[in-house]
Amino acid sequence: MESKGQVEEVKVLVERIVAPYFATNCWILSTGAGNECVIVDPGIAVPDLAQRIIGRCHDLTLKPVAILITHGHLDHTFSLLPLAREGGVSTSYVHPADRELLINPARGLGAQGLALLEQLSPTKVWEEPDRVEEVNDDDVIEVAGMDIQVVHAPGHTKGSVMYRVDGGTLISGDVLFKGAIGRTDLPTSSPRAMRESLTEKVLTLPDEIRVLPGHGDETTIGQERLTNPFLLEISSSSR
Fold first, then answer.
1. Run of H or E including 27
2. 39, 152, 158, 222: which has the fewest Cβ within 10 Å?
3. How many Cα atoms occupy the beta-carbon half-sphere of 25 within 13 Å?
Protein backbone atom coordinates (compact mmCIF):
# COMPACT_ATOMS: atom_id res chain seq x y z
CA MET A 1 0.00 0.00 0.00
CA GLU A 2 1.51 3.32 -1.03
CA SER A 3 1.56 6.49 1.05
CA LYS A 4 -0.53 9.36 -0.17
CA GLY A 5 0.46 12.98 -0.50
CA GLN A 6 3.39 14.99 0.79
CA VAL A 7 3.75 17.17 3.86
CA GLU A 8 5.89 20.19 4.50
CA GLU A 9 8.29 20.20 7.43
CA VAL A 10 6.59 21.87 10.38
CA LYS A 11 8.46 23.09 13.43
CA VAL A 12 6.65 21.90 16.54
CA LEU A 13 8.21 21.92 19.98
CA VAL A 14 7.56 18.52 21.54
CA GLU A 15 8.15 17.60 25.17
CA ARG A 16 7.38 14.24 26.76
CA ILE A 17 6.56 13.30 30.34
CA VAL A 18 6.28 9.58 30.99
CA ALA A 19 3.76 8.70 33.70
CA PRO A 20 5.04 6.25 36.34
CA TYR A 21 2.06 3.91 35.86
CA PHE A 22 1.87 2.06 32.51
CA ALA A 23 4.57 4.40 31.13
CA THR A 24 1.95 6.48 29.36
CA ASN A 25 3.35 9.33 27.29
CA CYS A 26 2.02 12.76 28.15
CA TRP A 27 2.95 15.01 25.25
CA ILE A 28 3.32 18.79 25.41
CA LEU A 29 3.23 20.57 22.05
CA SER A 30 3.72 24.20 21.13
CA THR A 31 5.15 26.37 18.39
CA GLY A 32 8.10 27.29 20.62
CA ALA A 33 9.27 28.24 24.10
CA GLY A 34 7.34 31.16 25.56
CA ASN A 35 4.15 30.36 23.66
CA GLU A 36 0.85 28.66 24.38
CA CYS A 37 0.80 24.86 24.39
CA VAL A 38 -1.49 21.85 24.33
CA ILE A 39 -1.13 18.85 26.62
CA VAL A 40 -2.02 15.32 25.53
CA ASP A 41 -3.10 12.45 27.82
CA PRO A 42 -2.13 13.38 31.39
CA GLY A 43 -1.66 9.93 32.95
CA ILE A 44 -1.33 8.27 36.34
CA ALA A 45 0.93 9.32 39.21
CA VAL A 46 0.44 9.65 42.95
CA PRO A 47 -1.35 11.84 43.79
CA ASP A 48 -1.46 12.85 40.09
CA LEU A 49 0.74 14.12 37.26
CA ALA A 50 -0.53 17.71 37.29
CA GLN A 51 2.29 19.47 39.13
CA ARG A 52 4.97 17.73 37.12
CA ILE A 53 3.31 18.85 33.89
CA ILE A 54 2.78 22.37 35.15
CA GLY A 55 6.41 22.52 36.28
CA ARG A 56 7.70 21.46 32.87
CA CYS A 57 5.53 24.10 31.19
CA HIS A 58 6.85 26.71 33.62
CA ASP A 59 10.44 25.76 32.86
CA LEU A 60 9.79 26.35 29.15
CA THR A 61 7.63 29.44 29.77
CA LEU A 62 4.71 27.70 28.09
CA LYS A 63 1.08 28.50 28.80
CA PRO A 64 -1.22 25.44 28.70
CA VAL A 65 -4.48 26.31 26.95
CA ALA A 66 -5.97 22.92 26.03
CA ILE A 67 -5.86 19.24 26.94
CA LEU A 68 -6.30 16.64 24.20
CA ILE A 69 -7.51 13.17 25.17
CA THR A 70 -6.81 10.41 22.66
CA HIS A 71 -9.17 7.96 24.41
CA GLY A 72 -10.87 7.43 27.73
CA HIS A 73 -8.69 4.80 29.41
CA LEU A 74 -7.61 5.77 32.91
CA ASP A 75 -3.90 5.69 32.16
CA HIS A 76 -4.51 8.57 29.72
CA THR A 77 -7.04 10.59 31.74
CA PHE A 78 -6.20 10.12 35.44
CA SER A 79 -4.71 13.60 35.88
CA LEU A 80 -7.12 15.42 33.59
CA LEU A 81 -9.24 17.13 36.24
CA PRO A 82 -6.41 18.30 38.54
CA LEU A 83 -4.39 19.51 35.55
CA ALA A 84 -7.34 21.48 34.19
CA ARG A 85 -7.99 23.09 37.56
CA GLU A 86 -4.49 23.62 38.92
CA GLY A 87 -3.05 24.56 35.56
CA GLY A 88 -5.90 26.87 34.61
CA VAL A 89 -6.44 25.02 31.33
CA SER A 90 -9.66 26.27 29.81
CA THR A 91 -10.75 23.44 27.49
CA SER A 92 -10.41 19.67 27.22
CA TYR A 93 -11.20 17.68 24.08
CA VAL A 94 -12.48 14.09 23.79
CA HIS A 95 -14.49 12.01 21.33
CA PRO A 96 -18.15 11.62 22.40
CA ALA A 97 -17.94 7.80 22.38
CA ASP A 98 -15.34 7.93 25.18
CA ARG A 99 -16.64 10.90 27.12
CA GLU A 100 -18.51 8.74 29.62
CA LEU A 101 -15.20 7.16 30.67
CA LEU A 102 -14.12 10.50 32.13
CA ILE A 103 -16.68 10.10 34.91
CA ASN A 104 -16.91 6.30 34.94
CA PRO A 105 -13.45 4.98 34.04
CA ALA A 106 -14.24 1.46 35.28
CA ARG A 107 -16.37 0.87 32.17
CA GLY A 108 -13.28 0.89 29.99
CA LEU A 109 -10.97 -1.25 32.11
CA GLY A 110 -9.96 -4.88 32.25
CA ALA A 111 -9.17 -6.73 35.46
CA GLN A 112 -5.70 -5.21 35.90
CA GLY A 113 -7.02 -1.69 35.47
CA LEU A 114 -9.93 -2.24 37.83
CA ALA A 115 -7.56 -3.51 40.53
CA LEU A 116 -5.34 -0.45 40.12
CA LEU A 117 -8.36 1.85 40.20
CA GLU A 118 -9.45 0.35 43.50
CA GLN A 119 -5.93 0.64 44.89
CA LEU A 120 -5.27 4.25 43.87
CA SER A 121 -8.63 5.87 44.43
CA PRO A 122 -11.18 3.64 46.18
CA THR A 123 -13.33 6.59 47.28
CA LYS A 124 -12.64 9.07 44.49
CA VAL A 125 -15.60 10.75 42.82
CA TRP A 126 -14.83 11.20 39.15
CA GLU A 127 -15.75 14.52 37.53
CA GLU A 128 -15.21 16.21 34.20
CA PRO A 129 -13.30 19.48 33.92
CA ASP A 130 -15.53 22.55 33.68
CA ARG A 131 -15.32 22.76 29.90
CA VAL A 132 -15.21 19.62 27.77
CA GLU A 133 -15.58 19.86 24.00
CA GLU A 134 -16.51 16.80 21.93
CA VAL A 135 -14.53 16.20 18.74
CA ASN A 136 -15.37 14.09 15.71
CA ASP A 137 -13.56 12.79 12.65
CA ASP A 138 -12.02 15.53 10.48
CA ASP A 139 -12.71 18.31 12.99
CA VAL A 140 -9.92 20.87 13.11
CA ILE A 141 -9.01 22.45 16.44
CA GLU A 142 -7.26 25.80 16.03
CA VAL A 143 -5.33 26.27 19.25
CA ALA A 144 -1.91 27.47 20.47
CA GLY A 145 -0.97 28.57 16.96
CA MET A 146 -1.50 25.07 15.53
CA ASP A 147 -4.15 23.44 13.37
CA ILE A 148 -4.92 20.05 14.90
CA GLN A 149 -7.00 17.65 12.82
CA VAL A 150 -9.02 14.97 14.60
CA VAL A 151 -8.76 11.46 13.14
CA HIS A 152 -11.33 9.07 14.60
CA ALA A 153 -9.65 5.65 14.72
CA PRO A 154 -11.73 3.19 16.77
CA GLY A 155 -10.50 -0.25 17.71
CA HIS A 156 -8.67 0.23 20.99
CA THR A 157 -11.79 2.00 22.24
CA LYS A 158 -14.91 3.21 20.42
CA GLY A 159 -13.80 6.80 20.84
CA SER A 160 -10.09 6.47 20.09
CA VAL A 161 -8.77 9.38 18.08
CA MET A 162 -5.45 10.46 16.69
CA TYR A 163 -4.48 14.10 16.31
CA ARG A 164 -2.59 15.35 13.27
CA VAL A 165 -0.73 18.55 14.13
CA ASP A 166 -0.14 21.01 11.29
CA GLY A 167 -0.08 18.09 8.87
CA GLY A 168 3.34 16.82 9.93
CA THR A 169 3.04 15.20 13.37
CA LEU A 170 0.62 12.46 14.36
CA ILE A 171 -0.33 11.89 17.98
CA SER A 172 -1.40 8.28 17.65
CA GLY A 173 -2.58 7.46 21.19
CA ASP A 174 -2.98 3.71 21.58
CA VAL A 175 -3.78 3.10 17.92
CA LEU A 176 -0.18 2.79 16.72
CA PHE A 177 3.06 2.20 18.63
CA LYS A 178 6.63 1.66 17.50
CA GLY A 179 6.49 -1.96 16.41
CA ALA A 180 3.03 -2.65 17.82
CA ILE A 181 -0.59 -1.53 18.06
CA GLY A 182 -3.04 -1.04 20.92
CA ARG A 183 -4.90 -3.85 22.65
CA THR A 184 -8.24 -4.96 21.26
CA ASP A 185 -9.38 -7.21 24.13
CA LEU A 186 -10.77 -4.54 26.49
CA PRO A 187 -14.33 -3.22 26.89
CA THR A 188 -15.39 -1.25 23.77
CA SER A 189 -12.36 -2.63 21.85
CA SER A 190 -12.82 -4.19 18.43
CA PRO A 191 -10.20 -6.09 16.40
CA ARG A 192 -12.21 -5.48 13.23
CA ALA A 193 -12.47 -1.73 13.87
CA MET A 194 -8.76 -1.57 14.68
CA ARG A 195 -7.88 -3.25 11.39
CA GLU A 196 -10.09 -0.79 9.51
CA SER A 197 -8.49 2.14 11.32
CA LEU A 198 -4.98 0.93 10.53
CA THR A 199 -5.92 0.33 6.89
CA GLU A 200 -7.84 3.53 6.26
CA LYS A 201 -6.37 6.04 8.74
CA VAL A 202 -2.74 4.98 9.26
CA LEU A 203 -1.45 3.24 6.12
CA THR A 204 -2.78 6.04 3.92
CA LEU A 205 -0.50 8.60 5.59
CA PRO A 206 2.79 9.81 4.07
CA ASP A 207 5.96 8.03 5.21
CA GLU A 208 7.55 11.16 6.65
CA ILE A 209 4.84 11.74 9.24
CA ARG A 210 6.32 11.85 12.74
CA VAL A 211 4.40 9.60 15.14
CA LEU A 212 4.06 10.36 18.86
CA PRO A 213 2.46 7.25 20.42
CA GLY A 214 0.65 6.75 23.71
CA HIS A 215 3.41 4.45 24.99
CA GLY A 216 7.02 3.91 23.96
CA ASP A 217 9.34 5.82 21.68
CA GLU A 218 8.37 8.00 18.77
CA THR A 219 8.59 6.70 15.23
CA THR A 220 7.48 7.54 11.69
CA ILE A 221 4.81 6.15 9.41
CA GLY A 222 7.52 5.03 6.99
CA GLN A 223 9.38 3.08 9.65
CA GLU A 224 6.20 1.36 10.80
CA ARG A 225 5.16 0.58 7.24
CA LEU A 226 8.43 -1.32 6.82
CA THR A 227 8.82 -2.96 10.24
CA ASN A 228 5.55 -3.09 12.18
CA PRO A 229 4.28 -6.69 11.93
CA PHE A 230 0.63 -5.65 12.18
CA LEU A 231 0.91 -3.15 9.32
CA LEU A 232 2.96 -5.60 7.28
CA GLU A 233 0.26 -8.23 7.63
CA ILE A 234 -2.44 -5.81 6.52
CA SER A 235 -0.38 -4.63 3.55
CA SER A 236 0.42 -8.15 2.41
CA SER A 237 -3.19 -9.29 2.65
CA SER A 238 -4.39 -6.35 0.53
CA ARG A 239 -2.13 -7.13 -2.42
1. strand 25-30
2. 222
3. 22
Exposed / middle / buried, residue 172 (Cβ in 10 Å: 0-12, 13-18, 19+): buried
Q: What is the pLDDT of residues 12-25, one digit of tens each?
A: 899 999 999 999 99
Q: How far is the C-alpha of 28 from the C-alpha of 130, rounded, in Å?
A: 21
- Residue 76's nearest CA partner among 43, 106, 112, 52 is 43
Whole-number Å distance between alpha carbons of 214 and 229: 18
Q: How far apart are CA 155 and CA 182, in angstroms?
A: 8
The CATH classification of domain 13-237, taken from the options 3.30.70.260, 3.30.980.10, 3.60.15.10, 2.60.40.10 = 3.60.15.10
pLDDT at 125: 79
pTM: 0.93
The number of residues in the chain equals 239
